[in-house]
Amino acid sequence: MTQGTEPAAEEAAPPSEPEPGGGPGPGPGRRRGGRALAVLGVVGELLITLGLVLGLFVTYSLWWTDVLANRSASAASDQLRESWASGAPAAPPSAAAATPGGAPSAGAGPGYAAGDGIGFLHVPAMGRDHQVLIRMGTDTATLAEGVAGVYEQPYRSAMPWDASGNFALAAHRDGHGAKFHELDAVGRGDAIVVETRDKWYVYRVDNTLPETSKYDTGIVAPVPKGSGYTGPGRYITLTTCTPVYTSRYRMAVWGSLVRVDDVDAARTPPAELRKG
Length: 276
What we know:
By secondary structure, this protein is of the alpha+beta class. It contains 2 helices and 8 strands. The protein has an 8-stranded mixed beta barrel. The longest helix is centred in the first third of the chain and has 58 residues, at 28-85.
């Protein structure tokens, strides 16, 4: 009897080859996670770029515009002083100033146009050497030159030499020279001096308004609203934006004329500018 043969054992299946990289291939969850990380990366880069752009814009607005404005104002100031030294005509008096009885002035009078320089503003409370060129007009182009602009609307300002009225000025608080950046440091009793070719006009601060609507035009009226003045006089008003780094509201400083000093050959400043 022949011996039967045993059935052959089944061969074991070879182990599966691992995916390159040492693990199984990516599943749907991993693919979604990769896309999310890629999107986050792009968003992060965009935010960084936006931050850089905003930083450059702030630098331009608050620093570079100051540089340009101060350079322009310095050149214009030198030009005005040179014209004075050369014997250019003095500031023309308005018709109202020459009228007996001191009728309110109708404005700057002949001889001045928008953009013309008429003198310098000195405010010791904003810094011992604080000096600002004064020009006619408060339009954007004029104020961007780092100057204090004389209001011509909605009320046309009187001039310091006029017999009556309000000499109203505006300047930037931030950027473009920021000539009124420290206006909030000016308070009652402080001196404000306007220098022209042949006169020093010395004012004393009587009142301030920390905040009002930017549409409040009454603060630069001939008798300024809110100033406490009840009738015509020889006033000065300084205005700028507030709070700092915004243009949401306006602030105002009001003063009245104390005296007028003649300019001597040495242009010796009045005592108010020689203190400290």
